[in-house]
Amino acid sequence: MVGRNAGYVTTQGEIVAELLSKAGYSVISVSHLTNRYLRLLHIVVALLWRCKKIDIQCLQVFGGPSFVVEDIASGIAKLCRKPIVMFLHGGAMPEFMARYPRWSRRVLNRADVIVTPSEYLARAIAKYGYRAEVVSNVIDIRLYKYQHRKSARPRLLWMRAFQPIYNPEMALRVVAQLRTMEPNVELAMGGQDKGFEASAKQQAKNLGLNGSVRFTGFLDQEGKLREASTADIFINTNRIDNTPVGLIEACAMGLPIVTTAVGGISDLLTHGETALLVPDNDDEAMVRAIQRLLVEPKLVSRLSSNGRRVAERSSWERVKPQLEKLFEQLMLNHRASYAGEKL
């Protein structure tokens, strides 16, 4: 797991590991290394060296290139006869499983329990005969100052990594359209550069948006709070996703949300109650949704207050008892199985 490194998004695995540690659990967290090969080596050594100290392996599963690591790590845990909880993440996981069904089955079959943060992924793996426990992604809600919005100005915030699946170009096209009706529109775009920030800046220049768009770079916790405090609307243009933590963070801070309804987002948010949902890559629909917020203060207020309630479902106080119950049952089952084998 990476995340506790400057310029990198903090992963759910890192957040949960830290919160469990603060709650009194003995947690071994690997790996903080950013190099893929060194990270794999670190994980293998930690699993083999500390095997006797491990009760449960909690494995973050994303698919894609990281699935090699997840395959090896789960294989070692199985050889060491350790129960495995696989936490599935990523909106691209269903596509990955469809492309590599045999590989996916081999790895997922090692799991004693599968956890997903959304019904979307639970439904996706159910097609392959797997059952998942749905446990929300976690945020430390105390870190997010709530600011109730009663009206909205055209001050927008976009916050995600600069790569094609998050469609930053759509945000720029939306601002270009919106500016013809709202000349004072402003957009702050923050996130880790995954190789496409330069092209986004060039597109902003080509669209004549230099005075309307500001690129903030990667936003740490302080940066998120700073940008959210001056914004009135959060826009999300993802083309693939599961349960974006960025949306939960926006809810926690009281920002009304306009988002594409892809992946598990429609399981997280309800159109007209906790966000405004628009079709994937539909610039015109997003512009219309933003315009609604600019002229409907009651809608803004409703989305702001209801959004905070959505975020509260992801608080550690809600999630911790679910994980504790899951771990307790897993250990009981594991001990009973081991005792049965000895008999």
Topology:
Layout: H1 12-22, H2 36-49, E1 57-61, H3 67-79, E2 84-88, H4 93-99, H5 101-108, E3 113-116, H6 119-126, E4 133-134, E5 155-159, H7 168-179, E6 186-190, H8 197-206, E7 213-217, H9 221-230, E8 233-236, H10 245-252, E9 257-260, H11 265-268, E10 276-278, H12 283-295, H13 297-312, H14 316-342
Parallel strand pairs: 1-2, 2-3, 3-4, 5-6, 5-8, 6-7, 8-9, 9-10
Specify the helix fraction band.
Answer: 40-55%
CATH class of the largest domain reads: Alpha Beta
* Shape label: elongated
Question: Are there runs of 5+ residues with pLDDT below 50, and where?
Answer: none
Structure description:
This protein is 47% helix and 12% strand. With 343 residues, the protein is α/β, with parallel strands linked by helices. The chain folds into two domains: 12-138 and 316-342, Glycogen Phosphorylase B (Rossmann fold, 3-Layer(aba) Sandwich), CATH 3.40.50; 141-312, Glycogen Phosphorylase B (Rossmann fold), CATH 3.40.50.2000. The longest helix is centred in the last third of the chain and has 27 residues, at 316-342.
